[in-house]
Amino acid sequence: MRYRAQSVTMMAVLLFCLPPRDAVAQLESARGRIEHIAAGISGRVGVAVVDIETGECLTVDGAGKYPMQSVFKFPLALAILDRVDDGTFTLGQNIHIRKSELLPDTWSPMRDKYPEGNIDLTLAEVIRFTVSESDNNGCDILFRLVGGPNAVEEYVHALGVTQIAIVSTEREMHRESKLQYDNWSSPAGMAELLRKFFNGEVLSEKSTSFLREIMEETTTGPRKIRGLLPKNAVVAHKTGFSGVDEQGLIAATNDVGVLTFPSGQHAAIAVFVSESMSGEKECEQAIASIARAVWDAYIEESDTKH
Prior knowledge:
Elements: H1 2-16, H2 26-39, E1 44-51, E2 57-60, E3 66-67, H3 73-85, E4 94-97, H4 109-113, E5 119-122, H5 123-132, H6 136-146, H7 149-158, E6 164-165, H8 170-175, E7 184-185, H9 187-198, H10 205-216, E8 234-241, E9 250-260, E10 266-276, H11 280-305
Antiparallel strand pairs: 1-2, 1-10, 3-7, 4-5, 6-7, 8-9, 9-10
Helix pairs in contact: 2-11, 3-6, 5-6
């Protein structure tokens, strides 16, 4: 029975990735470069790119399961903002943050700014810390507010995106590193969630604009998707990184988001690298090169039309 359920899900992913008959060929023109880049990195590389306007889709191991690390803060933000849209929360409401919630030995610009805690920050500020700066303490504060990881997973699945699992908090993953593998996504699943979000199928117009804005302000992973793009390129994205263990293994280094091209077109992109011994810089370079391949394909197509 489990095998049948997995087969049905796989079929759904494949059907989602079938381009319409009149779809342009930007993504297919980038396939060779993307596959070559992916083959040059040790470990596993998963890629999904979806044209927001046409639905055209390209994947490399698009249905594979990859640990998300901080990428899961994007669906967490969606779940929180859905509660804003239904009136449960407001962006301006104060969230009291105790010093005990600002855990040490974890990535937390919020803790660095307010080391003594016992402060009131608006929900909007906590979301900004969590998404734009990938704050781990902010993440777990939002998890507690929304009802935990399972509540976020149920919310995402209710949107029709089932190739994402959210089980553990940041604190739990720091206590037991193997738990990071329980928080996984397929590249195609994440690209579909990005497409739905960007198209306004998930949140209100106001909440969509708010989250898009803070994703465009992301400060982490500047050498990933943004690394080889023009400096003025508009990228709304969320990164994830496991760190490098004592053996030099990178369990996860990821970046997912939406590219806005000069032509006004948009593409959702999800790039996951897992179980790699290639080195942090090399993995980041691969992600940047894949994003650049997509960018160039769109620019070349636009130049051809003009």
